[in-house]
Write a structure and sequence with these properties.
The structure is a single chain. With 123 residues, the chain is mainly alpha-helical. It has a domain of 70 residues. Helices cover 54% and strands 7% of the residues. The protein contains 5 helices and 2 strands, in the order ββααααα. Strands 1-2 form a two-stranded antiparallel sheet. The termini are far apart.
Length: 123
């Protein structure tokens, strides 16, 4: 992470340097994007969420790395889930159908009315 120039323009803090991420930070950000929230990523890099937002705004490649990191991990996990389902894992099948095909487990409707049973003794 390199600090470049002093802000000093537009009411910013003139003593605060502008953070610019290099290849290594962007690659690490991409790799961690699939397991950490933005808040956690900011903490990991020792910056605030607002600073992270500003970095993504100034450096579109940072935002793209985040999206790519998340998308590739989601694709990997999705492929693993489908493989498990196709291999006969019932839980994977049910989860897949619930999340991808809109299947729902419906509760049986319970009647609030009491049931009355009359027993008649034969004569």
């Amino acid at each position: 992470m390199t600090k470049k120039d002093n802000r000093g323009k537009g009411g910013g803090n003139p003593d605060k340097a502008l953070i610019v991420w290099g290849y290594d930070e962007i690659a690490e950000y991409r790799d961690l994007a699939s397991v950490l929230t933005k808040s956690q990523l900011a903490g990991y890099f020792g910056i605030t969420e607002k600073t992270l937002f500003n970095i993504e705004k100034r450096q579109p490649e940072v935002r793209e790395a985040y999206e790519y990191g998340r998308a590739t991990k989601i694709a990997t996990m999705g492929n693993n889930l489908v493989k498990l389902a196709l291999d006969g894992n019932v839980t994977a099948n049910i989860f897949y159908l619930k999340t991808q095909a809109g299947w729902k487990e419906e509760q049986a409707e319970v009647s609030a009315q009491p049931i009355s049973i009359n027993i008649i003794k034969p004569e």
